[in-house]
Design a protein that fits this description.
Low-confidence stretches: 1-21, 129-144
Distance between the termini: 61 Å
Number of strands: 0
Largest sheet: none
Radius of gyration: 30 Å
Amino acid sequence: MSFIDTPTASSSSTPANSCLQGKQPAVPCYAQTLSTFEALDLFADDETAQKICSYFEHPDTILAIDNLVKVARAHQQEEQEIRLARLRSRARQTMATILLDQLQSWGLEREIHDVLRKHYFASHLHSLKISHPYASTSTISKNNDSSMKLVQCFIYYNKTLNERNVGHLLPM
């Protein structure tokens, strides 16, 4: 579809460049060179879409533009969701790293290693659907030691974020 309102553009008897004579482009020149996604962003804006529709009289053309507007809005929504998911992922990784660094600075390397190893193997066994006895967080919560409570919070944090593969965090 061309953004130039020319009924003679399809005529084979008319030279190709004559269709531009006396016709006004539906969108400015800068908008004619936009990438697909940039053009979709233009259509997602109500005011711009209305302005573009005002250049056309044919109902099918206006309907096509309306459909393009819907696609553009869906595309923007999808991009926002992807961006938000990436930000959440970065935040989770950053928070887990900060918590591990803090626990290590308090001298809890051995406790972290033991608990992470138990948690990693428990998650791995659970993902394989193998029932195997392992130390759960309930045994940790019985201990009143504050360092163990911090480790328990870390495990709970990992479970809530569905981070099952923490093997890369274990010291070799």
